[in-house]
């Protein structure tokens, strides 16, 4: 298996076709914001997104840009900057279809995807409206219960077509350092393809020492990598940089109106993108 | 002379008392007051207490991602957790999804997060919502992110244990699916609570007053708790504990 090293984030995101089933991890695990902007610029449409298990800024921007047809999530929020205005507006207008989930259900369904099994049972959830609105989930009686009964929820496996995330570094074999952000490993194991942006590409084999190997996503799961320094901006990234508070606050204010969001998109994604990709 | 107890400090102390005897406490995202309460409970316990604060670097012990919280909860390794809700009804159903007809809700909130699971698994779930209005405490929630009670056939070791709001503290009777007002916070009355609650609840004719934290508790809140919570919630700590 060969891993492609892309010269730019634009090139990396050009691999995402219209209608792709795309997975993002929660923002704190490494939000691929440069990749999100490149995806919007590429004009890719009808994305079907699943969040692991939540998201914020990536989904907010993609939904606002009108390139998303459905979102499966346990929660979409901009954290300290409040609700996600474009996502919320799209829900209210019925512009996207929403599959509300709960965090452990998304994790469990991905774990089924990792294992190559068709479904997985999960405790809880029964009797909630989360369950009531999910036609793709089933409830059966626990086949192992003595005397019958014991209803349990079954979830179909999730195998996203493409997972996209941002990480600290990769080596030239495409091994990606994910550190303690283990949701990224589960996500990449379950996904059919994984596209990664990294702060830096380094020489040497990161799988060579036991100490660093434990923190790695082996390149066998990775399809392509692009270097994107400050690739999570305007969000912060681990201990490497803090969030751009002024920028995020300005976004939250602008995105309250259609016009404000349109001006943000033009300035920060399209015009700025010409510089970003230059 | 110590400055008088702030409303946040009263809530922290009230929540911490509900955590007495817990060995493991987990706290979700955007929860500075529950987080402070967990740290206070740990500070005041004579036996070791383990606190995990989600999505905070160094604030939790998960090395396999936050899936570990759910796995631990399902195994009975988490004694207490906090949940809130945009709407909460008299049967302790909580709604974290939105107002109006689903799915095109006229007001959309972030989503159910882990509530549909942790409400079933964690023995002592404490509902916490500072805003106590009829907008929040409704007759029936518009969307059940997680039900307050389940039928006997459903595996459910956990559920609502108590509820703390900006006005008072309630217990919850699972058999009757009903809240009982246990105490009213200083400065408020039973009438204030009844007028701002969209469902009936049990109460004494003259409910008790929520006790304010004693000097030692206040010192713990303003000292070690303030210092620790600032690591996860710097803005909250700056606002509530400016001297710390």
Give a structural overview.
The complex is a heterodimer of chains A (278) and B (244). The radius of gyration of chain A is 19 Å and the shape is globular. In chain A, the strands form two sheets. In chain A, strands 1, 2, 3, 4, 5, 9, 10, 11, 12 and 13 form a ten-stranded mixed β-sheet that branches. In chain A, strands 6-8-7 form a three-stranded antiparallel β-sheet, with helices on one face. Chain A has 278 residues and is of the alpha/beta class. Chain A has helices spanning 9-13, 33-42, 57-64, 85-93, 103-115, 129-132, 183-190, 210-213, 245-254, 258-276; strands spanning 4-6, 21-25, 47-52, 68-73, 97-100, 119-122, 138-141, 151-156, 162-171, 176-177, 193-202, 216-217, 224-227. Chain A has two domains: 4-102 and 158-276, Glutaconate Coenzyme A-transferase (3-Layer(aba) Sandwich), CATH 3.40.1080.10; 119-156, no CATH class. The mean pLDDT of chain A is 96. Chain A has ten helices and 13 strands. In chain B, helix 1 crosses helix 2 (32-44) and helix 2 (32-44) crosses helix 6. Chain B is 29% helix and 20% strand. In chain B, strand 1 (24-27), helix 2 (32-44) and strand 2 (50-53) form a beta-alpha-beta unit. Chain B has two domains: 1-83 and 214-244, no CATH class; 85-116 and 131-157 and 182-213, no CATH class. With 244 residues, chain B is α/β, with parallel strands linked by helices. Chains A and B meet through helix 4, strand 5, helix 5 and helix 6 of A and helix 3, strand 7 and helix 4 of B.
């Amino acid at each position: 298996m060969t891993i492609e090293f892309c010269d730019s984030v634009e090139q990396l995101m050009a691999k995402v076709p219209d209608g792709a089933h795309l997975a993002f991890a929660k923002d704190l695990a490494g939000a691929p914001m440069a990749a999100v902007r490149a995806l919007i610029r590429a004009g890719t449409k009808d994305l079907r997104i699943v969040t692991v298990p939540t998201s914020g800024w990536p989904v907010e921007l993609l939904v606002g840009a009108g390139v998303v047809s459905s979102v499966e999530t346990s929660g979409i929020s901009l954290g300290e900057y409040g609700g996600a205005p474009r996502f919320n507006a799209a829900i209210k207008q019925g512009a996207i279809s929403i599959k509300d989930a709960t965090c452990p259900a998304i994790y469990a369904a991905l774990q089924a995807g990792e294992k190559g099994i068709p479904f997985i049972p999960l405790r809880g959830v029964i009797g909630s409206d989360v369950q009531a609105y999910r036609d793709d989930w089933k409830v059966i009686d626990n086949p192992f219960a003595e005397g019958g009964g014991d209803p349990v929820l079954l979830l179909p496996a999730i195998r996203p077509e493409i997972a996209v995330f941002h990480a600290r570094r990769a080596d030239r074999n495409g091994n990606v350092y994910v550190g303690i952000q283990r949701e990224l490993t589960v996500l990449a194991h379950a996904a059919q393809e994984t596209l990664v942006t990294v702060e830096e590409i380094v020489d040497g084999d990161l799988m060579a020492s036991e100490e660093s190997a434990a923190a790695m996503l082996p390149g066998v799961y990775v399809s392509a990598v692009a270097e994107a320094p400050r690739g999570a901006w305007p969000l912060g990234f681990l201990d490497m940089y803090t969030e751009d508070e002024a920028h995020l606050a300005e976004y939250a204010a602008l995105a309250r109106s259609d016009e404000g969001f349109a001006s943000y998109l033009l300035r920060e994604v399209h015009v700025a993108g010409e510089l970003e990709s230059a | 002379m110590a400055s008088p107890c702030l409303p946040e400090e009263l809530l922290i102390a009230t929540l911490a008392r509900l955590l007495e005897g817990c060995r493991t406490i987990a706290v979700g995202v955007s929860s500075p007051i529950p987080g402070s309460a967990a740290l206070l409970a740990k500070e005041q316990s004579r036996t070791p207490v383990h606190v995990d604060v989600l999505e905070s670097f160094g604030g939790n012990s998960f090395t396999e991602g936050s899936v570990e919280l759910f796995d631990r909860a399902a195994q009975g390794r988490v004694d207490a957790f906090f949940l809130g809700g945009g709407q909460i009804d008299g049967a302790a159903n909580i709604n974290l999804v939105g107002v109006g007809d689903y799915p095109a809700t006229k007001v959309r909130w972030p989503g159910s997060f882990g509530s549909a699971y942790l409400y079933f698994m964690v023995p002592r779930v404490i509902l916490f919502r500072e805003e106590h209005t009829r907008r929040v405490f409704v007759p029936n929630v518009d969307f059940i992110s997680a039900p307050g009670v389940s039928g006997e056939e459903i595996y459910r070791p956990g559920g609502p244990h108590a509820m703390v709001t900006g006005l008072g503290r309630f217990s919850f009777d699972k058999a009757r699916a009903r809240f009982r007002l246990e105490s009213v916070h200083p400065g408020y009355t039973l009438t204030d609570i009844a007028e701002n609650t969209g469902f009936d609840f049990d109460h004494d004719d003259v409910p008790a007053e929520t006790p304010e934290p004693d000097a030692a508790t206040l010192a713990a809140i303003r000292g070690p708790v303030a210092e620790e919570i600032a690591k996860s919630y710097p803005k909250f700590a700056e606002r509530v504990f400016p001297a710390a």
